[in-house]
Known about the structure:
CATH superfamily of chain A: MetI-like
Number of domains of chain A: 1
Shape of chain A: elongated
Number of strands of chain C: 0
Largest interface: A-C, 42 and 50 residues
Strand content of chain A: under 5%
CATH architecture of chain A: Orthogonal Bundle
Strand content of chain C: under 5%
Oligomer: heterotrimer
Helix content of chain A: 55-70%
Helix content of chain C: over 70%
Structural class of chain A: mainly alpha
Distance between the termini of chain A: 47 Å
Structural class of chain C: mainly alpha
Amino acid sequence: MAEITAAAGAPQFDEAQEAREFEPRGYWATVGARLRRDRTTMAVGLIMVLIIALAVFAPWVATHDPLQGSVLRRLKPIGTPGFFLGTDETGRDIWSRLVYGGRLSLICGITPVLGATCLGGFLGLLAGIGGRLINTLIMRVVDVFYAFPSVLLAIAICGVLGAGIGNTLLSLTVVFTPPMVRVTESLTTQVRSRDFVEAARASAAPMLAIIRQQVLPNVLGGMLVYATSLVSISIILSAGLSFLGLGVTPPHPEWGLMLNALRQAIFVSPVVAALPGVAIVITSLCFNLLSDGLRSAMDIKLPS
Amino acid sequence: MTALRPDLRALDARDRGGPAQPLLLVHDLKKHFPTRGGGFFGARETVQAVDGVSFAVAKGTTLGIVGESGCGKSTTARLLLHLIEPDAGDIIFDGDAVGAPDGISVRDLRLQMQMVFQDSYSSLNPRATIGDIIAFGPRTAKRVSAGAARERADRLLEQVGLRPSLFARRYPHELSGGQRQRINIARALALEPRLVVLDEAVSALDKSVEAQILNLLADLRRDLGLTYLFISHDLNVVRHVSDRVVVMYLGRIVEAGEVAAIFRRPRHPYTQALLRAMPSMDPDRRTETPPLTGDPPNPINPPSGCRFRTRCAFAESVCERVSPRLDPIGGDHDVACHMMVPGSGHSRAVEQQAAND
Amino acid sequence: MARFIIFRLLHTVLILFGVSIVVFGLIHLIPGNPLDILLPPEAPKEVVDRLKVEFGFDRPLYEQYLAWLWRVLSGNLGTSVFTGLGVTHELLNALGNTLVLALPAAVLGFTLGTVFGTVSAFNYGRWPDKFFSVLTILGLSMPHYWLAIVLVVVFAVIWNILPAAGMGSGGGWPTSWDDVRYLILPVITLSMIPMGVIGRMVRSTVLEILSHEFPTALRAKGLRGRRILFHVLKNAAPPALAVMGLQLGYLLGGSILVETVFNWPGSGQFMNLAIFRRDIPVLQGTVVVIASFFVFINLLVDVLQALIDPRMRR
Lengths: 304, 357, 314
């Protein structure tokens, strides 16, 4: 062909200078850097680490045995020496019950979401990739479960199976799997139709490799954001189940359970009665804000 | 680009038929897409994206495919690589039918035929490094070891004009359009194909960058003994790049032949209009009347007979009744128009015959 | 369009089928013989056998399911094991009471949410945005049953201006200011979550619309603020409507927690009692009805969306 003259061949930039200015950074490294610049999310993260630490190290942080109470010490107000957050209706130290309760509440919050992410993520991926028939099968079954408002479904399952933490975890996993399937399927379908996946197919690569290396890394981000927001719901829902008597059974400390037990105490010691709720609010808020922060950090097009 | 002289180049080890056998032979390719329109129980309407396309690509040459948006060129490209399943027709690669039990499998076809996509950004995985992107094909399809694949990726980066030390560990969003397109080319070459389909590969680039990429493509073709299928809507580029050209309209080929013949003496009214529509740099040659009027008809309901008749100044009743065939009119020049065929019933047929003689 | 509705209706019927199967299957999740729940363990065998036949537990599963389905479709939701009364009548009463809470809460929550979200979006980054964003995310992160307790403490205990529990003159829509007083706290509590969800959703949708070019194009054409707002909201409406439909469903089905705190005789409390008494027919009936409601609300929302936004008619 006729030689098209231009500044052809030689690159239009100074390679050496570019090498000096530019350090290649992966996607997750970029996300991490953006997160570090986001002060709100960093603060939230710190608080979360604190809460989790308190729960994990409960035996060392608690001041009393959370199960031991004395009727003589019922419903002491905040600031009582030795029981700085007061005592509950059977005389147990609130602070100790709060930190021990944090363990159960966090487990009830995180575990079902973990389970739902694995199960729902797998099904969603399958539905997104597997072709029309598999997609229809999976998504219609998901639709049926979507017909139940989540609170209703959780309560119905727990109501039928009985109280206890195992049933709570099970019912919440069942409740959260359909939304996870939907989100993952939607993400997978979007990614699958993008050009680079088609290019990967054109290079004769086996399907499994394409899923693993091209599709999955692009879907995980969205799943993470959604899962984090689900945790905040899960904490509230599991506490709600305990509040109704369907979740954790007494005398174990759990925030929702404590809320229920202290309900009668609102006339006597209102502030003490409100404390477990405050714990729930703070924790749930943290997960919500974390989810938001993750989403902004992962949307590379937006300025950080 | 001048065609390679076969004796100057050692034949590829995978060559099966020698220089005379076309590397790619496409016969009566068809693809119809069902739409979601139509009645509930009635017949589904179909988009006749590709409707009986046939052509051949000789080894070491470049075939250009031209047409407006929606004419079916990109669909054709995807059909060739079996990214979309053809409804009918044969694809024959170096003598082997694709998909036939005694022919060549789709997988093996893809090891010899690759594609460079138009949108340089979306055709690269945003989560992978450049080196990984290029190495992906060899590693997974050919089971090349990680180290060997990385070496190959580095070599390819050099070949397309990018320094591996600078680029191999970068990510697509850190690069410019021209650089990304070079990477697309490198990725396509990673599997050592013999035929490369370039689907609007330079359409999204600035003109100066486009020039660089076209030069690169020319060099690669020479150095690696490649055959190209160059799809574009830009007539100037196609003219410079191709040895032979195929003009498509609404899923059919209306004219095909050697590039000089087509551009010097276009025969089909559509081709003539396309060429007249190219703006000229000469202020004395202004286009006063639009060469082509009307909107392209709906591919869901293409006109009967000759699909171009609704915009053709010479349309007659025979054009509505009978679809013109793609017939040779002398030399390497085929046209699908009733005016070219004596005895077709078109009033101008005899005149053209006389003009040809 | 008609085709879309037909498809949607078929889909709905299918879903309802699935729902009925799930609800029916619930009872068989209980470990042990379903009859054991209904009768004391020392009941004589003849009684057990007779009841087995009467309730149909001796017949194969699919027959039981079909019989139950038939009864449900003809309006008979069975009899409460505990009270012996028909489930249907009591449930509908209770549902009515819940609606008295849910509808005002929905209106309040949606309105507040839309206003907060829109104000936030139009003031992106400035203090109104931050303020309302905090409000909406708090609404989401708060266990509403806890908020209920707090509100009761403040308004009923400390200040004593609103009643702490109960429904007032009992049953039905409020007929006097006194009745309305009983409504205020529960409605505010229930509206928190919808307010939060809708608020955040509207904010992000409106922000996304504003980032497109057409509002700028509208302003360049000379349109004033209020008209631009109208156009933006019209575009934001479809997804917002979808979420509102969902939220209405949650209000109906999830009111149980608030009703427990306020001792409100709605379907939530109805179900709560049923759970504790192991009154399976009541539980089944309630879940089936509420789920069906939810499915119909979703159908309505989908049709509305398709009417507004032609792109949704798949």
